[in-house]
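Moderator note: this is an archived Q&A kept for reference. The question asked for a predicted structure of one protein chain; the sequence and the answer are reproduced below.
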Amino acid sequence: MIENKISQRAKNIKPSSTLAVNKKAAELVAAGEKIINLSVGEPDFDTPDFIKQAAIRALNEGFTKYTDSSGIKQLRQAICDKFKKDNNLDYQVEQIIVSCGAKHSLFNVLLAICDQDDEIIVPAPYWVSYPEMIKLAGGKCVVCKYKEDFKMDIEHLKSIITRKTKAIILNSPSNPTGIVYSEKELIEIAEIACKYGIIVISDEVYEKLVYGGLKHISIASLGEEIKKLTIVVNGVSKTYAMTGWRIGYLAAEMPVAKAIANIQSQTTSNPTSFAQKAALIAITADQSFIKPMIEEFEKRRNFIINNLSPKIHYCKPDGAFYVLLKIGNMTSGQLAQKLLEEEKLATVPGDDFGAEGFVRISFATSMTNLEETVKRLNN
């Protein structure tokens, strides 16, 4: 039978719980249920029209052929300029690889650095795909515990480093908690990475979505030594409401960038040509156009945290567009099921994020939906 031919690698991989919940919610809505879908991890805003028009122009001009497998030079140069302007980081064009989304960039990184059973430290709560991508790359996911503020426990981090530790994944602002690491905290992490020669995979895809006057800091900007150890991953999906365009990118030291370029050349080849042209316009435009979206997300965040019942335990998000919350003593699965069946709220169980007992909700939805959500949660 054909099922006996499936590789053990594939059998070991769990499907994305966030995508599974989103699919289930869509099916219930299609069946007539009045579900509020809080599972989705993408802005509810449309891609700005001038970005769409850039893609249309590219199509009309016949820009539909293969490009350099690492991305067009103009886009890679624009990304270099962005890193310099936003993050005070200097990179050459050859150090930039454009991929089919930040998720693809992250997987490319893991394929490039992981040998069999290399250990990759992942601080909980973590994005659901990190452990599965590590498994696919042949590595071993080692979870670092979190403190009451949902940030990594530095003492525990020190205790789990071994001679097989290859890298640590840092996600700030974080999915699913929205935590943002301060410069002081990043310096402490950087010192540990430098001491042990550990690579830092810095997932910065939510960098523009920060609130309360905070500013995102890239750990790579804290000094030349940590910069050489850091692989910065970013993309256009969250900042510009371009999730379906599938353009992500990374910056790394030349040996790593070259290895990733080789991997990509033999797998996907180039990201979609005309989507690259759209990303180029997005990155090089006056960035003031994203301000209204950020302000709206902050308004929604403030509404949620100011109106949730004191009985609900949650992590106050300083960035991204999620709230990780806990009601009573139910397991994550029980809570998510109860919210779906009784309150018609589609949430993502926290156990897949390494946060048992919690569920994740997204506030990338309308204020009308959020007002009703808070009312139902407080029940």
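Archived answer notes: The chain has two domains: 2-46+290-378, 49-285.
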